[in-house]
Design brief:
Elements: H1 11-17, H2 21-29, H3 44-50, H4 54-62, H5 79-82, H6 84-96, H7 100-104, E1 107-114, E2 123-124, H8 126-139, E3 144-153, E4 156-166, E5 172-184, E6 187-197
Parallel strand pairs: 1-6
Antiparallel strand pairs: 1-2, 3-4, 4-5, 5-6
Helix pairs in contact: 1-2, 1-3, 2-4, 3-4
Length: about 210
């Protein structure tokens, strides 16, 4: 199922290249690795997007597909600078400094973002990150990003966050949740966000329940 043929080809790559949705589903359901192998440096997800095969791309995403590897930078990043926790700390500092350019410098140009609880918010590309965080920085002038817990699993860093502040209109900005960022060569290449607004506590009477 995950055999790699000469030239880094896999059965899944061949099926994706041929646009065969049924075979792609069959292979994935039987354990095919959606990130294994490449055709001219392109992953199965890259190929599906290039061919405009939206259904195949969505099925691949559902099974954990991301880009294979981004293009290597002109100057290799040092191991220390590429450490996932180090990169995550740089992200946190950029958020708290409202340093949009500093934040974008830590993100791959073809960064992929998805929010499983909000599928319509998925996007690809660093420019959308610029729009999203530029808007947040403008609307929440005192934004703070606190890291509560961090766990590194290979090239993925799991982080529990608390993003909070007060919007320009005086309303509270209060989000908690978890993010999973895949990091390669010191940059975020893909993210899965599970961030949700914190529900305000209801006032209770002297004996519990509503007053």
């Amino acid at each position: 199922m995950n055999h790699v043929y000469e030239g880094s080809l896999t059965p899944l790559l061949v099926a994706t290249s041929g646009g065969d949705l049924n075979v792609v589903r069959l292979l994935l359901d039987h354990g095919a690795d959606p990130n294994l192998g490449a055709i001219e440096g392109k992953s199965a997800l890259d190929i599906a997007k290039e061919k405009g095969s939206r259904e195949i791309a969505e099925v691949l995403r559902q099974h954990g597909a991301t880009r294979w590897v981004p293009a290597a930078p002109a100057e290799p990043t040092s191991p220390a600078a590429a450490d996932p926790k180090t990169v995550l700390e740089k992200v946190r500092r950029a958020m708290n400094a409202h340093d949009l350019e500093g934040l974008l410098a830590l993100i791959e140009p073809e960064y992929e973002s998805e929010q499983p609880a909000h599928p319509d918010r998925a996007f690809q590309g660093r420019e959308q990150v610029r729009k999203n965080w530029g808007s947040i920085f403008a609307r929440v002038p005192d934004l703070r990003a606190d890291v509560l817990r961090t766990v590194v699993d290979g090239d993925t860093v799991w982080t529990e966050w608390h993003w909070h502040g007060v919007r320009s209109d005086g309303t509270k900005f209060d989000y908690r949740g978890v993010t999973l960022f895949r990091i390669w060569n010191g940059k975020l290449m893909a993210g899965r966000l599970f961030m949700e607004p914190v529900q305000e506590r209801k006032k209770e009477g002297p004996y519990g329940g509503s007053p």
